[in-house]
Design a protein that fits this description.
Belongs to the SfsA family. This is Sugar fermentation stimulation protein homolog. It comes from [Clostridium] clostridioforme 90A6. It is a single chain. The protein has 4 helices and 15 strands. A hairpin with a 2-residue loop joins strand 5 and strand 6 (about 75-80). It is of the alpha+beta class. The protein has a 6-stranded mixed β-sheet. Strands 1-2-3-5-4 form a 5-stranded mixed beta barrel. A 3-stranded mixed β-sheet has the order 10-11-13. The longest helix has 15 residues, at about 170-180.
Amino acid sequence: MTYEHIVAGTFISRPNRFIAHVETGNRTVVCHVKNTGRCRELLIPGVTVILEFHPDAVLSGRKTEYDLIGVYKNGLLINMDSQAPNKAAWEWLVSLGGGQYTEKNHYPLGSYVPFDIRREATHGDSRFDLAFSLRNRDTKAVSPAFMEVKGVTLEENGLALFPDAPTKRGIKHLKGLIRAHEEGYEAYVLFVIQMKGILGFTPNDITHPAFGETLRQAREAGVHVLAYDCLVNPDTMTVDSPVKVMLD
């Protein structure tokens, strides 16, 4: 996914979860923070942040001209736009369906090729980020599938963790994936780690042990648990390489 009109700035403060004050171009601007999570380990006064400027803000009725979309942590650029993982995951699935991966042993979804990829699908009392069909490369059999996407910005000692705050909604999604799998759907949860340099992914059992417990139950029930890092530049984010999922 791609951004336009990118500028850098210095983070000053975050009066509430929706806005931040940032110094850029020798002035202080008010930015919309595209992540309502805590992000306390990222948004520290003095760090360099990445903003997307919207030159048509006034005409389009926006309250701010800037979105805060990225931050540098110890020299590592982390995308913190909570909408980016869904877009990047959709582009990634489309690339899989287009035959980007030709070696079966390296194919992210094993013998399956996704097609008819759709965003935002309701099943029962759940609304999943992606719905698609899977065609078996060997048998040509077709199966319906759902995927829930979770963006990850929390990193500690080389490990990516989710969530950074308790998430009842996240548990509901996992339980919905379990039910969908029981009804004959292939079910996936994809953790999109919005940075590089990650050694592994693990649920944040300290912050929200119930999410970790439910994630493990989902895996045991047949839900596929995937984690991928991203190539992050100031103006782009692309799903890149698989990251080891550590649930044991």
